[in-house]
Each structure stands twice: as structure tokens, then as C-alpha cells.
Amino acid sequence: LESVDRQDNVAVSFSNLYRFVRPHNLTGAKLYYAFNDNVDFHLYAANNLKDTVSTGVGTESAMPAAGFRLGFNWGEGETKSSIGLSGAGSAEHPNHNTHYSFLGDLDVNWAINENFTLGGEFIYRQDNVLVAGAKNNKAMAAQLLAAYNFNESWGGYVRGGWLHDINPAGVYTNNDQQIYDWTVGFSYQIAEGAKVKLEYRGDYFADAI
Fold this sequence. Notes:
By secondary structure, the protein is mostly beta strands. 3% of the residues lie in helices and 54% in strands. It has one helix at 16-21, and strands at residues 28-34, 39-46, 65-74, 81-90, 101-111, 116-127, 137-149, 154-166, 177-191, 194-207. It has a 10-stranded antiparallel beta sheet with strand order 1-2-3-4-5-6-7-8-9-10. A hairpin with a 4-residue loop joins strand 1 (28-34) and strand 2 (39-46). The longest helix is centred in the first third of the chain and has 6 residues, at 16-21. The radius of gyration is 19 Å and the shape is globular.
């Protein structure tokens, strides 16, 4: 639902799901296969899944991370839409090939017509710890985005998001908490390949429940 290239996204700001939970800076290789026009499959191997937690060199197991995305597509042109189911896993601890980290993700991008698009995503992530009896690091997050083109020049969008960092250590957000965010924005197409956007965003931090 969100690209690492900010200019390719509907919203200016990144969601908290993207910022804190989903890995997005990997080194590896990927295979892609389209079974037909409606079903495709991605399979990849990467260095680790840890970039949202730690960027230190040599902080993971020698085993690479592995992941996939199974996509279901429909529509053509401006109404092309998709649903994707993704998963990934990795042994992240130095010199340990056990106590895996893993995540699951469901993404939806539905172009209802040429002007109106709905997008949504839900992710669950768990990073298991080495200490016996200690609580594993867990997080859940979701977002919903609606975008509408009023005409060829003007467009608008709204987005709502939720994140729950489920751990006393607060590994992902530095606190055991829930974060609610909302975003409203407008865009204006100045010329072909040139667009300006105005966006307002708010984040509400609440104690974990």
C-alpha cells in the first residue's frame, strides 16, 4: 500500500505501520511469477527483517530472511485492483538459528472507479526473544485510506491508522502503547509530472490495553 519512494504514495507522510512495523530496507534477491492475469507470486531472500528495530552490522543470524507475497488482481487501466497476502520469517539473533522473527500482512488496493480508490492493510509482527520465560516482542497495526479525484487537477484523501506495541520493552515505538493517527490531504496537478500536496496529520498516543 505504501512505497519507499514517497512521491509514489497518495499521502505525503508515511503511516505508523510503515514507520515502526514493516521492514522496508532490505538487501537480497526476489523471484516473480505471474500464473495468469489475475494471480501472481513473489518470493524473496534478504539479509534480515530488522531494519525497523536495529541497523547495527552483524546483529543477526547467518541464516537469511525469507518472504513471499501472493497477489490476486482484477480490473484494467484506472480500475486495476489487487489483494495481497504476505509472510516473512528470519532468525535474527547473532549466532542463533532459533527464536525466529516472523510477520504476516494483508493488503488491499481497490479502485472502485476511475476517480475513487480504497486501500487498506493489516500487519502482525513478532520478534521472539532468547530469554526463557520472557515476553516476546509483538506488534499489530492497520490503516485505511480513501482517495478521490474531483477533476483532472484536484484530488483529496483521508487516512486512519492504528498501531499496538505489545511489549513492556516497547521495542518498536519505545513504549508499550497504542497509537492512533489520522490524515487529511489535498493535491493539485500543476502540470504533467508536477503535483503539489497539502496535508494535515494528527497522532494520539494511548496506554496499552
